[in-house]
Write a structure and sequence with these properties.
- By secondary structure, this protein is an alpha/beta fold.
- It folds into 2 domains: 30 residues; 253 residues, Metallo-beta-lactamase, Chain A.
- It is built from 8 helices and 15 strands.
- The strands form 2 sheets. Strands 6-5-4-3-2-1-14-15 form an 8-stranded mixed sheet, covered by helices on one side. The protein has a 7-stranded mixed sheet with strand order 7-8-9-10-11-12-13, covered by helices on one side.
- The longest helix is centred in the N-terminal third of the chain and has 27 residues.
- The radius of gyration is 20 Å and the shape is globular.
Length: 284
């Protein structure tokens, strides 16, 4: 009996040490991680800054985002520093309801275009009931995640109350050292033109998340030709009913957008960078 107890205690201590080691490594790994999660026909992007701070941008259409988060976060981690809803459509906020139910969130960011949908109303109730701090974007702002790591919200640059939801999408540029990611929600070509006219070559980024899942309404030649990404990500569902990504859009992205990587049928796409070297892998 005494021998068995010693074995059990030894195993327990080994497991505890392994958990502590993995947690410390997770927090102190001096790299930025950006994971485009495989949530079917929708968007969900998980970000871990080099100091361990975490951000989730959108949550897909349903609770499949929980499964994906479980693969990029330690199982014992039940907090996310910042959650961003780029806009109020279900394929971007449906999964945020279970996320806010299960995780402690310090800050929730959204634009001012609202929706009367049940999922949007449910999201508002959870934010209120859990007393989560809420920030409504009506002008460009910068969010510092870590030293040398900034999430620059480029749009909306005005109050979008009453706007069509896609038009109000939050567009953010994530920068760590010399590595950059341009994340566009479902922004249409009209918003892309506003960004190009206002910001020009500063939009250039290593990675572009193609707007609206590769729809023909986004990723104009003007915009993609200005961003000139090395990689373009398309987050969409396999054999989706919308026909995303659009063939003409793919041609534009092939011309200007570097290597095209899709979540559809291939799994989540994970980038890691130390601010200089940028690498990625894809895994189902």
């Amino acid at each position: 009996m005494k021998k068995n107890l010693t074995i059990i205690i030894s195993i327990f201590l080994i497991v505890c040490n392994a958990v502590i080691f993995s947690y410390l490594y997770y927090l102190t790994e001096a790299k930025l991680t950006v994971a485009f999660l495989d949530v079917g026909q929708g968007d969900a992007i998980f970000i871990k800054a080099p100091n361990g701070r975490q951000m989730l941008i959108d949550g897909g259409v349903n609770n499949s985002v929980l499964r994906e988060l479980g693969k990029v976060m330690p199982f014992y981690d039940r907090s996310i520093d910042v959650v961003v809803a780029t806009h109020a459509d279900q394929d971007h906020i449906g999964g945020l309801v279970p996320v806010l139910e299960r995780y402690d969130v310090d800050l929730f960011i959204r634009s001012n275009a609202t929706s009367s949908s049940a999922v949007y109303l449910a999201l508002g109730e959870i934010i209120k009931s859990k007393n989560i701090k809420e920030e409504i974007i009506i002008s460009p702002t910068n969010l510092t995640l870590a030293p040398e790591t900034e999430f620059k919200i480029l749009f909306p640059d005005r109050d979008t109350a009453g706007w069509e939801t896609n038009d109000s999408s939050i567009v953010g540029q994530l920068i760590y050292g010399d590595s950059s990611f341009l994340l566009t929600g479902d922004s249409p070509a009209s918003v892309e033109k506003i960004l190009v006219d206002k910001l020009g070559s500063s939009l250039k980024s290593d990675v572009l998340k193609a707007g609206h899942h590769g729809s023909k309404t986004s990723s104009s030649e003007l915009f993609v030709g200005t961003v000139l990404p090395t990689y373009t990500i398309i987050s969409a569902g396999l054999n989706n009913k919308y026909g995303h990504p659009n063939q003409e859009t793919l041609e534009i992205l092939t011309k200007f957008g570097g290597k095209i990587i899709k979540t559809m049928g291939q799994g989540r796409i994970v980038f890691k960078t130390d601010g200089n070297d940028l690498n990625f892998f894809q895994k189902k």
